[in-house]
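Lab notebook page, bench 4
Experiment: in silico fold of construct C2
Operator: M.H.
Input chain length: 238 residues
Purpose: comparison with the prior construct
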Amino acid sequence: MAHCTTADPLPVRPVRGDVALSWRESRRMAFKTKQDQVADIIRARIISEAYPRGTKLKQSDIAKELGVSITPVREALHMLGAEGFVQAISHKGLIVPLVQTDTARETYELRVMLERDLTARALDRLDDETLAALRESQRVIAALAAGGGRLASRTENYRFHFRLYELADRPQTLQFVRVLWARYPFVTQERGGARLKNIDEHECFLRLAEAGDKAGAVEAMVAHIQSGWTDLLASGVV
């Protein structure tokens, strides 16, 4: 296990409950096109369950909500279909697919392997700007947790991880990890003390990264993923 010094209380400033769900307020990652940005917002909403599993997605509704044309929404949904975030059903259209719990262990084991690699490579390229962005993301997660912003907190958690993973500059691995997140049941992420534990684990990772302890930070990230899996097993969902 990674060892961290006891964290000082995080400064918590008010954050709007929908901050991580807003098109204009979303913290942009390395987007190349409007299609990529729309896809990222939809991914985040599926992971956060702002779009619950089984929800039917209508292109026109999403386009209107985001203030964009149908074209980038259609292209984004096509991309997300290939990743497994959405599914085309005959006579029903596009839906958010249900999680297949029978493959959850394999998904988890692949996540550990690939996210360990992305984290290690990202830490080799970690700069002050990205570290500051991760720190701000951590502050937002803590503020949302204090204010009960469950959906927005989940979304910001997604952005925290992928903001880091993008730094690895491994686009194919990043794509595979997105597919795994689409299939992973994040149902225990906000239950009981899981929300505060998630914040503490992020804090442990950040402190080790700031101290230049790459090996410890990688171990902390892996322990974070393993902790979520342990909670999932304890929940009886898988």
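Observations: DSSP finds nine helices and three strands in the chain. Residues 6-29 have pLDDT under 50 and may be disordered.
Next step: discuss at group meeting.
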